[in-house]
């Protein structure tokens, strides 16, 4: 069972690239982040044309997550973590969606960026990560095969960035962000890509600016965390890097994990 994550950076702008990737790689489940569309604007029919069924949690112009499954509809279990955005009166941002597919709990997230730091956006990031950990502890207690995946906006270690100096002031690799991520792993989750690439040097994101893609100046912020029941079934995990180099590509590449049936 192949389960993938792709921060698409605007589903309408990238729809041809997204469908191309789905048809060429055919994951059983794909989790999308930054769909950047309200619920009524989500192009569900476009996915149905190629055999995928979707659920989604949208928001105008920003954020937004979706889960698509090959040949069946994901069974939605939860949306949102119950935390309001950093602006007063903003309400909850569309960042979390959870569903069951083929006996596996799929938890799709788009974690807050946290910049600029310090400040309210960074405080929001850390508060969001605290609530995420609480939910993930509940999921561990259920002892169901579970994959928590998406854009975590955390560079876990120095080996996960092309140049530590270039990102040292960024919210993505502050000690507080890294500690919150490490606590998730300490609870019993397995970072699939790191487990199979312990030396690091695997990137999932390359900025549009300063020729980052051409220079391979990237870093790893898209992660696949497996519960013990899912980790026991781990076969492979990787990054579909070449899709970042295609015309009108997202600034992220898809990441995926394969679990034994």
TrEMBL record:
EC number: 3.1.11.2
Listed GO MF terms: double-stranded DNA 3'-5' DNA exonuclease activity
InterPro entries: AP_endonuc_1, Endo/exonu/phosph_ase_sf, Endo/exonuclease/phosphatase, ExoIII-like
Assigned protein family: Belongs to the DNA repair enzymes AP/ExoA family.
Entry protein name: Exodeoxyribonuclease III
Keyword Magnesium belongs to the record: yes
Keywords: Hydrolase, Magnesium, Metal-binding
Highest taxon of the lineage: Bacteria
Pfam family for this entry, one: Exo_endo_phos
Annotated Gene3D superfamilies: Endonuclease/exonuclease/phosphatase
Gene name as annotated: xth
CC cofactor: Mg(2+)
All copies of domain Endonuclease/exonuclease/phosphatase, residue ranges: 4-252
EC class name: hydrolase
Keyword Hydrolase included in the entry's annotation: yes
